[in-house]
Structures are given as structure tokens and as C-alpha cells.
Amino acid sequence: MSPTQKTAKEPTKQSAHARCTENDRLASRITNSLEVAQADLAKLSGSVGSGVHELRRDLSKLLRDARRHAGKLGRTTRKDLERLQKDVAAAAKSKPAKTTSVPKATKPARAAKVAKPRRAARPKSAAR
Questions:
Q1: Tens-digit pLDDT profile for residues 21-54
Q2: Would residue 112 count as lying in a domain?
Q3: Rounded to whole angstroms, what are the CA distances from 75 to 12, 21, 25, 63, 86?
Q4: Is residue 64 part of a domain?
Q5: 35 inside domain
């Protein structure tokens, strides 16, 4: 194999690594956006009225939970991709080598059915 040719496994590993990196980047971007939103919400705390205080507190809790869930989603996705990569690699290794086998014997052709002659129609009785 010449040095310019790549094996079939290299692009797969690169694309899997690229997907994993892209997923990590997206999860961290979502987490950062939620952190910024939570920080901005905290800045508003002094300028809101008393009726909006409960709403701000609920929204703050929602953002905190969303940030936590986004982090869990990123970790779970990363673990799933790594597990799938291992499973695919194991499946590729465990494939049996192709062997040249003798083709199976074909069934003998069925004998063509011989059409049976139809029975002659019964004569109708005249006693009706």
C-alpha cells in the first residue's frame, strides 16, 4: 500500500472523533448560554417589583436545572458514542473470514404435472 492511500478504518475513526468533538462543543455552548442567561437574570433581581420576584425565582430555578441537564446530556452522549465505537470495532474484528465454499446442491427440478383428463359429464337422468 502506498503512503498516500489510507486504510478504511482511519476515516471512520476520524469521523467518529469529529462527531464526538462536535457534540461536546454543542453541549458546552448550550451550557455557557444557560450560564449567561442565569447571570443576567441575577442582575435583574434588584430592578423588578415584588410581584415579579416569584417569577424570577422560578425562572432562575428552571435555568439552573436546564444547565445541569444539559451537562448530563453531554456526558451521556459522549459515553454512548464511545460505547458504540467500541461495539463497532468489536463487531468488525469478530466477523468470520470469508471462505470459499462449495455451492449448495440445488433441488432436482420437479417433474411437470401431467394434466389429468377430465371425467366425462354424467348423463342426466331422464326420470325427473
A1: 887 888 888 888 888 888 888 887 767 677 777 8
A2: no
A3: 22, 12, 12, 19, 17
A4: yes
A5: yes
